[in-house]
Amino acid sequence: MKHFWKYLIYVTLALCMFLQSSGVFYVFSGTVRPNIYTRFPDQNDLLPIGTFDLKYGIDDTSSWINTSSESLVIQKWDGISSWGTDIAATYQTWESITTNQALYNIVWLPYGKYRSIFSISDNNGNTTTVITIFYVDAPSLNISAPEYDIGDILLWSNNFWAWELVVTVETVWAAFELDMLKTNLLSKQVWVSINDWNGTEWFWYDQESYSGNIQAISTSENIASQTGGINTDWEKNTYTYRLKYGALILSEETIAWEYDVDLDFHIDLQYADVDNRCILNGVRKFTCDL
What is the DSSP secondary structure assignment for residue 110, as one 8-state letter? Predict the structure, then answer.
């Protein structure tokens, strides 16, 4: 046994001398570049004008992320043939860079088409860059008048506006739902009201093309369900909806007076993806479930 250990020691010393004389040594090498495994906005995403966080999920399996190596460029398309200068510093308020996420807070980036260029390196100098095209929308909802008078409601006479209420939506091409909301009846006072259309009489509305399909205004009436998709010409699409309102009284029981009803048009716009992960609702609250 003593001879065995003596022999093993000689072999080990000889091997070490060989490695030293031949210049052979072992080096830890990080040749794998950082991985950018998720991003928001994603390629061809559409976002509403306002505030959002530009995010990149990152990792590195060899030498970890160098958090001081990040770089972000944002350029706007000129609408003709080229990208503009870097404007990231103008619209970025703060950033947070960790070994697994890069986050930039972007505020009020104007309506337009954009390109973001993000780069990150690991501690061995290996760099990954990702380029993303995304779009910023500036939607609008317009109602042609704050109020309308449908005139005197005469017994046995079907009365309706001579004018139309025109509701206009403008968007680059976000999907949206347009609803008309009502919280009360057409009323003089809480206890004196004109009921909703029952198929024979009372208060109703009709929508272009005015086919005579008049109907009651329930708590929420869907005026339009518009599918979405990016407008490659980068022009806003205009959607127009026309409405008329009226009433028919068949009895003398209703008290003569001025009756009022408040109607509220509410729009939910869908952004980013077709899977409903990002919604801008009628009170301009932008939420994302990523």
Answer: P
Rg (CA), the chain: 33
Model pTM score:
0.72
Domains and CATH numbers, the chain: 35-137 (2.60.40.1220), 140-288 (2.60.40)
Strand-strand pairing, 127-137 and 45-48: parallel
Task: Give 28-67 as a DSSP string.
Answer: ----SPPEEEEEES-TTEEEESSEEEEEEEEE-SSS-EEE
* Full pLDDT tens readout for the chain, 290 residues: 545 444 444 434 443 443 344 444 333 444 688 999 999 999 988 888 888 899 999 998 878 999 999 999 999 998 888 999 999 999 999 999 999 999 999 999 999 999 999 999 999 999 999 999 999 999 999 999 888 778 777 776 666 666 789 999 999 888 899 999 988 888 876 677 888 899 888 888 999 988 777 889 888 999 999 988 777 677 788 999 999 988 888 876 677 778 888 889 999 888 865 455 565 654 445 555 54
Distance CA(117)–CA(132), nearest Å, equals 7
Strand pairing class (101-107; 65-76): unpaired
Alpha helices in 82-166 (DSSP H): 88-91
CB of 37 within 8 A of CB of 56?
Answer: no
Contacts of 238 (CB under 8 A, 6+ apart): 168, 169, 170
| Angstrom distance (rounded) from CA 170 to CA 242 | 15
Two structure tokens written together for 232: 């490659």
Burial class (CB in 10 A: 0-12, 13-18, 19+), 72: buried
d(CA 93, CA 132): 20
Query: 158 CB contacts (<8 Å, ≥6 apart)?
Result: 246, 248
